[in-house]
């Protein structure tokens, strides 16, 4: 910050900074120091909305810049909500509730068995969970068909070697399940869930619209980067026209 080139001060004399300018400089300095130790891209609770503001998913607060959000994470409200969430997870463990699926331990919901979730099935190795991974979600649109889609980017720096080498180098696993296959939230037929499993992280569930996925080659795919420990998933939804043609019998070729 320039403390010298101020109106009313002699060259080299260093004018007296106002209280507001001093506070702004202090906040900027603290923000830079915090960003050296905190990676916001790996924070699962931060969300940047369409207005450019930052939202805290945990506390449901809105912040005008990242510095304000960083100050919020060190405040009492955010720390209290973190403690409440940790206590809730401990209570779920005491009640024998699997925190990954919301089902009682030993019960496997439809769609969860393929990911090895829910219950201590045969071949399941006990693992100590270390929390949720950092993630970033981006909306995409096909420039030709105008089909909508989502790209999920997850950072998994602490992924276990067995999970990273699963399926011959396939890395983590993902699957889309119905809203009626989970017990974490009340079922809503308008939504479905995209689950991502990677030990020792907790299984992530992303709530997406209940629309048919376009599973053609190059439309919906996954990519695991073993060097950067990043997992990418792209899903594309079918357009309304494509859904109508797929639902009509005899129109296998789809629209032209």
TrEMBL record:
Entries under InterPro entries matching the protein: Matrin/U1-C_Znf_C2H2, Matrin/U1-like-C_Znf_C2H2, SF3A2, SF3A2_dom, Znf_C2H2_type
Highest taxon of source: Eukaryota
Sorted UniProt keywords: Metal-binding, mRNA processing, mRNA splicing, Nucleus, Spliceosome, Zinc, Zinc-finger
Region spans: Disordered: 1-25
An MF annotation (GO) of this entry: zinc ion binding
Record flagged with keyword ATP-binding: no
GO terms of biological process kind: spliceosomal complex assembly
Pfam families hit by this protein: SF3A2, zf-met
One annotated Gene Ontology cellular component of this protein: U2-type prespliceosome
Keyword check for DNA damage: no
Family assignment from sequence similarity: Belongs to the SF3A2 family.
Protein name, per record: Splicing factor 3a subunit 2
